[in-house]
Design a protein that fits this description.
The protein is built from two helices and no strands. By secondary structure, the protein is an all-alpha fold. α1 packs antiparallel against α2 (60-94). The relative contact order is 0.11.
């Protein structure tokens, strides 16, 4: 199957011409990728903070640096989860069920 002819591989409309609806799929994939990268970055920062704690050898300066790294990683997690929860709360108050999905609503 040749994917250059259709946009099926993007989950977009079938056909040989890209349309504005293709932006929905592009944006949804972009947001999904950014959230996944944020999760990976969080995991790496937690590992770095753990290794800094392990190898600090009682040095107060290194311990403070490790605590700062861990604090920043947890703050990042709170920001990511908080943004998602805010969108869900707005959706609950307004009655919108698909607030966390991107839809241009074009026919």
């Amino acid at each position: 199957m040749v994917f250059a002819k259709t946009l099926e591989y993007l989950g977009g409309p079938e056909g040989d011409v890209a349309t504005i609806r293709s932006l929905e799929t592009l944006f949804a994939n972009l947001v999904r990728s950014i959230v996944a990268l944020a999760g990976i970055a969080l995991f790496i920062m937690l590992l770095v903070a753990g290794f800094k704690f392990l190898f600090s050898a009682g040095d107060q300066k290194k311990l403070e640096e490790a605590k700062g790294t861990l604090t920043n990683a947890v703050i990042g997690l709170v920001v990511i989860v908080g943004a998602y929860l805010i969108l869900r709360i707005i959706g609950a108050f307004t009655g919108l069920t698909n607030l966390t999905t991107f839809d241009l609503n074009i026919q």
